Amino acid sequence: MTEAAQLKILRTSPEIRELLERDFDFEPLKVVASSRLFQFSGNGSCELIATDASGGEFALCQSDKSNRPVLYVSSEGQAGIIARSLEEGLSTMAAIPHWHDCLKFSGGGQLDEMRRVFPFSEAEALEEVPHLDSSRRILRIRLELPVLNDPVYSLYSAVTELTPYFPVQGTDGLPFSGLFNKFTVLSNPVWRRKFSELS
User: Fold this and answer.
1) pLDDT at position 199
2) Bigger pLDDT: 199 or 51?
3) Which pTM does this prediction carry?
4) How far apart (Å, rounded) are the C-alpha atoms in residues 176 and 73?
5) What domain count does the chain have?
6) Hey, which of 10, 13, 15, 87 would disulfide with 28, CB 3.0 to 4.6 Å?
């Protein structure tokens, strides 16, 4: 499915909009709007496509390639590319609705640490949203999304490889920090206890 077709569904389908907002913290915008959080440091441009519950924003960045990468800017001063295209971004969210945790507890951007986080945050997501797998299936069918072979790596590689090419700053001109944080699995008391039980 083309990017344009996926955007049309995101903006016009009440079912998909409700599902994304409720289970994946992704609220599609019906019309193009201006960002309240960021501006490009250079001559770049983008199309704002969604927000999340915390006030963060998702945008498609103009690129010299056929696909437009997905930029995420948090309301707390972090920014970075999380996917190489809208299709990949939606596929990543379907596979890792808790993708924020994989970045926050990445130990400063370590792939192995992100992989360690995944099962713990996935278990919590399934506990909070028992019908999550059903929602995933609906998204993949309606938006014709592929099942990513390694969604954690897709997220990691997009952040590390593409973010430098799309520099953004706050509307006040101040720079953003990156999406990776220094915390690890052991920084979370609940996960630390479960991790010790498994060791």
Assistant:
1) 61
2) 51
3) 0.93
4) 9
5) 1
6) 10
Q: Does residue 194 belong to any structural domain of this protein?
A: no
Q: Is residue 191 part of a domain?
A: no
Which residue segment(s) compose the domain that 35 sits in? Answer: 3-167+178-186
Instruction: Identify any residues that bridge with 57 across adjacent strands, giving them in sequence order.
Output: 51, 73
For residue 124, which phi and psi values (nearest 5 degrees)?
Answer: -65, -40
Whether 35 contacts 48, CB under 8 Å? yes
Is 14 contained in some domain? Answer: yes
User: How far apart (Å, rounded) are the C-alpha atoms in residues 146 and 77?
Assistant: 31
CA distance 154 to 59: 18
The bridge status of strand 79-83 relative to strand 70-73 is antiparallel
| 144-196 confidence digits (pLDDT tens) | 999 999 999 999 999 999 999 998 989 888 889 999 999 998 898 888 887 77
> Is 63 part of a structural domain of the chain?
yes
pLDDT tens sequence across 14-36: 999 999 999 999 999 987 778 88
Residues 26, 92: Cα–Cα separation, whole Å = 12
